[in-house]
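Attaching the record inline, Q. Sequence:
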Amino acid sequence: MVSTKPDNPEREQRILDAASELIVRQGYDKITMSDVAEAAGVGRGIVYLHFESKEKLFEALLIREITHYGQTWQMYLETDPRAGTIGGIFRGVLYAIHSRPLMTAIARRDKRVLGSYLRKPDGLLYSLQSSSVGVDLIKALQEAGTVRQDIDPAVASHILDMLSYGQLTIGDIKSPDTFPPYEIVMETIADMMDRLLTPEDGGNGEAGKAVLRKISEAAGAQFEQMKQAKEMNEGQKS
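Structure, as predicted:
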């Protein structure tokens, strides 16, 4: 069957932008395609021309958000001279996540925002791992000379995850009005991490960047495989 999807990328992005704002504000379960059409300033039928269902629209949004996150992180890795340290990794990941509200909700696995899609067994989020400074990454950075050898990788990974998710969820228990500026918080935590975990000789930041490039490439390839597998599975169903 020949696709009838219109070749209008600017309008498609406008629809996605409108959907993103609505989902963050109201949650996936509460919005309708009519809501998206009204917010985007187009007819409901136009939205369906681009996306055959609310689920397909949301999955296009997820792909866009995760792709943007990867691009933001990659740019940070290549432009910030401190990106190869453990504190730099933490800062870069949190900046990339924090740059877009929907990406923050994805990283948090926010039930209010992501709703029933979060539990969908064949959904894009179901098999996608949460953002984590994993044990294998800590070990690789130790081998590269970026992290101290006497640190237990499992303990370091757990503490870094606690800090990451604490930063992402602190708004649930404290008013954002009381927060110090985000940039200052990130810089302070990154500095504390580097002071604690970096070898006394300063470590090898460039070797750390090489480790991150390899991990980033593997994660990107895995995400592409996941998308292709989902598309193939849906093609078999239709």
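The CA atoms of residues 73 and 92 lie 6 Å apart. The mean pLDDT is 88.

More tomorrow.
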